[in-house]
Recover the amino acids of this structure.
């Protein structure tokens, strides 16, 4: 593992890997500094895990990348091309799965997928093909015709991930996607997402508190009080925990 | 089809699907103005006539006078309930899906406003049809001529709802909107009484009503219904709508 102070992920990547980079982001909520000179590079074809205690600034990273809060400083680059404040073209390349559920509860899974397909410019046969592709990929075809409110937490999560993949993004940003899932659903979700990385060459930024979801070869960034305090690989579950406790002082 | 047209269709479709599936919303959208028309206005009909004043060319009954105000009420309530839905969407997280669509945020918000306005227009015409069935003498051509005024008013009130939604932190705060926005807007206007009658009873109320933008939207609809479909006021209201729409992505905060 490589410990650096700059927050640059040092991993061996295939030569064709693209990078979504966040550079020197500092963000304040009033006087409180949520992120301090935060930089990260998310390669395609890899899982980059973002770990940190509550209040470390992980959700702020997601909100910034989703354009839900305005960037105060720093820059984003999409494979070396700077991203302007008008972030719509960035959203064509990224799929988001937020911590809280964001599905329309009164409508079916299929309706939710059609809505998202339409927002991404997919219509008619193209939309139907895209829905078939993602639901097969995520194994959620059986639940599609049920209203979301009748689905279990795991089924809803699958629909959300399918929705995030509908426009074939290069990156998937997951903010604690396994919250509320039981052990077997969590494990299954982790396996499926790692499979997607291999098969679709997706880049995933995976924000989590649950270390057993990660694989030894995944990249790791630990964030504490708005600052990056470790970058490297996850390693074994035991080594990952040790790294975490070394990087984040605890009681 | 291009991506803007597709996004427009799905956003409008969602607005209508939501409206139709929420039966209580559909019902209350019609019952509320009908209650005012068939109970409140019916009581005053025999005692309160309206003297000849523009745009009316003859003496009219009170139930005909309140129709523009009740149209405004339909648009106002729909604009506010749409903003309530937006606050709910933001709390529930559904707003994030819309905000991360690969379209300029201004475009997304304008599509949403158009969706809300179209729902308002449908409600207004349903209400007008029922009112006509109840023997209120609404001019037939007025139904068509008033459409631009109704559309502009519905859009501006939807915009007002969206601006409010971006400043309301949670659903609990929404009760305040009823007391501090909807009631003053409606009662301090020419919805129920002509301004000259308000002036006779209170100078302060007259000035407050005169400066209330809702009064001007009501008058816009009133003139539209009675033969003046494109007045200067329609242009002013449209201009205001366009300027606010251009700034809407700066006004609206997807996160509080």
């Amino acid at each position: 593992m490589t410990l650096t102070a700059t927050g640059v992920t040092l991993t061996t990547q295939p030569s064709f890997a693209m990078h979504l980079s966040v550079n020197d982001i500092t963000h304040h909520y009033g006087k409180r500094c949520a992120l301090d000179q935060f930089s990260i590079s998310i390669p395609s074809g890899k899982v980059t895990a973002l770990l940190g205690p509550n209040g470390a600034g992980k959700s702020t990273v997601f909100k910034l990348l989703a354009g839900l809060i305005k960037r105060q400083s720093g820059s984003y680059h999409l494979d070396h091309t700077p991203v302007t404040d008008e972030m719509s073209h960035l959203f064509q390349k990224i799929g988001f799965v937020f911590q809280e559920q964001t599905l329309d509860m009164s409508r079916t899974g299929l309706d939710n997928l059609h809505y998202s397909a339409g927002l991404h410019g997919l219509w008619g046969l193209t939309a139907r093909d895209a829905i078939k592709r993602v639901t097969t990929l995520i194994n959620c075809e059986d639940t599609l015709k049920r209203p979301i409110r009748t689905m279990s937490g795991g089924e809803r999560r699958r629909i959300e991930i399918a929705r995030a993949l509908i426009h074939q993004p290069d990156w998937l940003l997951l903010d604690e996607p396994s919250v509320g899932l039981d052990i077997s659903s969590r494990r299954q979700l982790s396996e499926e997402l790692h499979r997607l990385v291999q098969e679709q060459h997706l880049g995933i930024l995976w924000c989590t508190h649950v270390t057993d979801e990660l694989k030894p070869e995944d990249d790791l960034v630990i964030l504490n009080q708005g600052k990056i305090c470790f970058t490297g690989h996850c390693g074994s579950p035991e080594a990952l925990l040790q790294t975490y406790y070394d990087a984040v002082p605890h009681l | 089809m291009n991506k803007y047209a597709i996004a427009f269709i799905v956003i409008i479709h969602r607005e209508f699907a939501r409206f139709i599936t929420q039966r209580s919303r559909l019902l209350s959208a019609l019952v509320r103005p009908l209650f005012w028309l068939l109970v409140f206005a019916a009581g005053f009909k025999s005692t309160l006539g309206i003297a000849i004043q523009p745009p009316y060319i003859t003496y009219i009954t009170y139930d005909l006078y309140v129709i523009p105000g009740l149209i405004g009420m339909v648009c106002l309530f729909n604009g506010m309930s749409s903003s309530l839905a937006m606050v709910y969407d933001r709390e529930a997280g559904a707003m994030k899906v819309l905000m991360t669509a690969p379209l300029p945020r201004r475009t997304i918000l304008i599509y949403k406003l158009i969706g809300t306005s179209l729902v308002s227009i449908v409600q207004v015409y349903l209400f007008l049809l029922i009112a006509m069935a109840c023997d209120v003498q609404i001019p037939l051509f007025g139904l068509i001529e008033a459409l631009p005024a109704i559309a502009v008013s519905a859009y501006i009130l939807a915009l007002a709802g969206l601006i409010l939604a971006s400043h309301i932190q949670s659903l609990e705060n929404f009760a305040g909107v009823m007391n501090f926005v909807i009631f003053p807007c409606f009662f301090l206007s020419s919805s129920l009484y002509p301004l000259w009658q308000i002036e006779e009873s209170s100078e302060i109320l007259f000035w407050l009503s005169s400066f209330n933008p809702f009064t001007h939207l009501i008058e816009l609809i009133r003139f539209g219904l009675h033969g003046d479909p494109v007045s200067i006021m329609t242009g002013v209201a449209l201009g205001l709508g366009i300027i606010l729409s251009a700034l809407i992505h700066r006004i609206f905060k997807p996160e509080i």
Chain A touches chain B at residues 63, 66-69, 86, 88-92, 94, 96, 98, 100-107, 111, 114-116, 118-123, 163, 167 (CB under 8 Å). The two ends of chain A are 25 Å apart (CA to CA).
